[in-house]
Amino acid sequence: MAKGNLPKLHSDFSVDCVIFGFDDEELKVLLVERNEPPFKAWKAIPGNLVYDQEDIDAAAERVLYELTGLHNIFLEQFYSFGSIDRHPQGRVITVAYYSIIKRNDNGLHPVSGYAKKAYWWPADNIPKLAFDHNEIVDKALQTLRHKISYEPIGFELLPEKFTLTQLQHIYEAILQKRIDKRNFRRKMLSYGLLTELNQKQKGVSHRAASFFKFNKSRYRSLKKKGFIFGLR
Amino acid sequence: MAKGNLPKLHSDFSVDCVIFGFDDEELKVLLVERNEPPFKAWKAIPGNLVYDQEDIDAAAERVLYELTGLHNIFLEQFYSFGSIDRHPQGRVITVAYYSIIKRNDNGLHPVSGYAKKAYWWPADNIPKLAFDHNEIVDKALQTLRHKISYEPIGFELLPEKFTLTQLQHIYEAILQKRIDKRNFRRKMLSYGLLTELNQKQKGVSHRAASFFKFNKSRYRSLKKKGFIFGLR
DNA sequence: GCAAAAGTGTTAACTTTACACCCATGT
DNA sequence: ACATGGGTGTAAAGTTAACACTTTTGC
Q1: Chain B contact for A52, CB < 8 A?
Q2: Cβ of residue B168 near strand C, that is under 7 Å?
Q3: Structural domain count, chain B
Q4: Residue A6 lies in a domain
Q5: Are residues B126 and B41 in the same domain?
Q6: pLDDT digits (tens, 9 = 90+) for A49-83
């Protein structure tokens, strides 16, 4: 166990980030290998202490950048964890954030020395993590599954022009179930927020799919009036 | 403004509680009148710092008790607030909890001297509060409204034996809309979780309503299988 | 007998589900 | 010609929404 005779901190707080990554196939979670005690060499989600004069949302962004090289990611707070002994060095309450992004398998480079490396790990098979990070990831997954039923999550994960099958794969990966293609397409198109473009896939060895785009500004104005975009 | 030349704290954390009260009529929020700086004599929601060796959930319970005399209330964490300057004396991140309880107009007695008094205030007309407490109450209300659409909130607010009209009033107060009686009754009964008792109201100057009870253990087992009790 | 809330059914509109075949493209 | 995923319609079942009158009780 990584607990040792480490100096005690005053009570303090940290932020932790659960970053889900999707790449047309599989849902993964971003883990780092820690390079500092406690839990040195353990896998963990990116997290660290908040500076004294730093907003917690800003701290989450900074910490994620330092440990993984990722930036400009919209992080959403979902829960805080504050058991007395969740941190072996002292009392640390952590505010947890999550996001889901397009995954590409290049470009995860820790900027600070706190993490040795950063990599994607399948969301359905998370290893044992440092601190209470398994609990944090579980709660983030629940939150994500819940959220997709009332907000259009998918469009952050897709290029501006995407096919309906790409969109369907996102729902299937997050909800962990197969969805009927015809019913899915009918439902998504019924909201009137997807515009079919005069463009098709090229170079695919099957019938080329149409590209669509998501009408974000129209969504925002409908949302204000109580409209809900989702799939249960 | 209540900011003064007060001593600076080290970074620290607090808990704040938004307690909704319902009494067959109206939804209210529990406020206290502060008796300590900062914001002395302002209205606020009950909240205070967490002790070094105290779990945050336990701290929320303790603080609520000390400021209002209420105890044995199931508090649910819903968000944390951590702007740099939300507390005039220094950096204080707060973890916010909410609950909804049966309101009776006796028995709100601050135990500690931090609050001068505690009282219920209509939820649709909250006055200006200390710190960022207006923002916290707003977010709690949103959370409550959202929650009622997928969990059976009402039964904590009712006596064990209740009428369907009492239940309907809860939904109407929280969702802020009128609901059709027949449709409401059909929907609630369709879940098969309400048992009609062989008892009726007494002494009412109109036809006496039947009492029902909620089958909590059956609900819990259905919930595990993915069942959702709610009204949208 | 009047006021007040309880209790009760039906219909139309809409939503969800289940299900199978032909189409376009590259190799 | 075949393998691959794209694209399409319908019917049955279930859910929601709208709507008005009779019953019971106390005063």
Answers
A1: yes
A2: no
A3: 2
A4: no
A5: yes
A6: 999 889 999 999 999 999 999 999 999 999 999 99
